[in-house]
Design a protein that fits this description.
Elements: H1 3-15, E1 34-38, E2 41-44, E3 49-52, H2 55-58, H3 67-77, H4 91-103, E4 110-114, H5 117-134, E5 141-145, H6 154-159, H7 163-166, E6 176-179, H8 187-204, E7 208-213, E8 217-218, E9 224-225, H9 228-240, E10 244-248, E11 272-275, E12 287-291, H10 293-297, H11 319-334, H12 337-352, E13 361-367, E14 370-375, H13 384-394, E15 397-398, E16 405-408, H14 416-433
Parallel strand pairs: 3-15, 5-6, 5-7, 7-10, 10-11
Antiparallel strand pairs: 1-2, 2-3, 4-12, 8-9, 11-12, 13-14, 14-16
Helix pairs in contact: 3-11, 4-11, 8-9, 12-14, 13-14
The chain binds pyridoxal-5'-phosphate.
Pyridoxal-5'-phosphate is lined by residues 116-118, 121, 149-151, 214, 219, 248, 250-251, 276.
Length: 435
């Protein structure tokens, strides 16, 4: 390691407690100080480059240091960096809200700004509960899918189901029930899971405010994928039993699944949609809860009726973040991103076919620009994900497996040549596990 790399690492470890990390690992595992980024590449101080095959935790869409986004943020910076959004407003927030209303499913017509994914989930849960209360019904339960992930603040963690993040905090969590996620991408698995959903709704819908789900892909739950028939079925059932449907598109939104929003695969309009991650192209923290006029109107009355949604965050609707989001949407408007992604997706699928002959590969699945390779025959204690991560880094690719699942979720600007490299490195990494 160069002096600069190791100096930053040393100074970092003196004071920084990193997210999702057992800090002791860094006694042996070097941190990677990043100096700059361009396109799909991250560069360290030694001049090494890494293909960001996980879009920096699923946020980046159009590469690092994207000119369109940079320019828009710089222009915004010189006019207004931030202002509170209560009693005040600004153009980037207004323009962005209109655009989001135009591109999301038709009944979503109101935009509540928040500033990160988990907080958007919290706000959606609170809104749903509060909506029913404003209508005179107390529904203190939420329903979610097994293996789901909705963030890590207490409410969001409560509706999630990844034991690694959740178990420790169990006594702190809010009331939540789970129904099984469809076990695979087949339509029959979706139908089976819907049957159980209906049984639970028949029994408990009086107490349930909302069903929250990640449409089509459960990200942190190991890129587990299911059929759109589950979404259409869940929409019908939630309507029938007076339960809200919250589509958490924080990861699936903005083209990841092949359509702009995953809900479009099933042609459904949820009561709430949460968006973040790709919203700003991976630049700045921002999130929204989108909802319907029906929900909005249930809060709209004289102040002294005390039905308002008094939820806020300091950085609600930050202008810089909104302008990054506007630039991101502009890129979608001016280019055939989804069309190009369809070709890339097909190419990736063809290239990963060869993984099937490796005996430790259990399953390959894909939905849009997310491709996952699940391995078999390893105990969690072996930490094969870490071994793949370390090997891939040494080869110039950033992969961050989830347990036994190696996945690709690259920025959309990745080239075919870069796809080849990303896949080749993953292939060798998996092959090497077998010794
Ligand atoms: C990442 C994620 C969240 C949480 O967002 P943060 O900004 O990390 O708090 C919630 N839901 C889903 C589906 C996510 O992928």
């Amino acid at each position: 390691m160069t002096d600069k790399n190791s100096e930053i690492m040393k100074r970092d470890l003196e004071v920084i407690w990193h997210p999702c990390t057992q800090m002791k690992d860094h006694e042996t595992l070097p941190l990677v100080p990043i100096k700059s980024g361009k396109g799909v590449y991250l560069y360290d101080f030694e001049g090494n480059s890494y293909i960001d095959a996980v879009s920096s935790w699923w946020v980046n869409l159009f590469g690092h240091a994207n000119k369109t986004i940079n320019d828009k943020i710089k222009a915004q910076l010189d006019s207004l960096e931030h202002v509170l959004l209560a009693g005040f407003t600004h153009e980037p927030a207004v323009e962005l809200a209109h655009k989001l209303v135009n591109i999301t499913p038709e009944t979503l017509v109101k935009v509540f700004y928040v500033d990160n994914g988990s907080s958007a989930v919290e706000a959606a849960l609170k809104m749903s509960y509060h909506y029913h209360l404003n209508l005179g019904k107390c529904k203190p339960l939420f329903l979610s899918l097994t293996n789901s992930y909705h963030g890590e603040t207490i409410g969001a963690l409560s509706v999630g189901d990844v034991a690694l993040y959740k178990e420790t905090y169990e006594p702190l969590l809010i009331a939540n029930m789970q129904v099984p996620v469809p076990k695979d991408q087949s339509e029959s698995a979706a139908k089976e899971a819907l049957q159980i959903l209906e049984d639970v709704l028949i029994d408990k819908s009086e107490e349930i405010a909302a069903l929250i789900l990640e449409p089509l892909i459960q990200g942190a739950g190991g890129m587990h994928m299911y059929h759109p028939a589950y979404l259409s079925g869940a929409r019908v059932l939630t309507k029938k039993y007076d339960v809200h449907l919250i589509a958490d598109e924080i990861m699936t939104g903005f083209g990841r699944t092949g359509k702009m929003f995953a809900c479009e695969h099933a042609n459904i309009s949820p009561d709430f949609m949460t968006l973040s991650k790709g919203l700003t192209g991976g630049y700045l923290p921002l999130s929204v809860v989108m909802t319907t006029d029906e929900v909005y109107n249930a809060f709209y009355c004289d102040y002294n009726e005390y039905k308002a949604f008094l939820h806020s965050h300091s950085y609600t609707g930050n202008p810089l973040a909104c302008s990054a989001a506007l630039a991101t949407l502009e890129i979608f408007e001016q280019n055939d991103i989804l069309g190009e992604n369809e070709k890339k997706r097909t190419y990736i699928y063809k290239q990963v076919e060869k993984f099937r002959s490796l005996p430790n590969v259990k399953e390959i699945r894909q939905q849009g620009m997310v491709t996952a390779i699940e391995l078999q025959g390893y105990d969690v204690k072996e930490r094969i994900g870490l071994r793949i991560y370390e090997y891939a880094l040494s080869q110039g690719v950033l992969l961050r497996p989830l347990g036994n699942v190696i996945y690709f979720m690259p920025p959309f600007v990745i080239t075919y040549k870069e796809i080849d490299k990303m896949i080749e490195v993953a292939y060798k990494g998996i092959e090497r596990l077998m010794g």
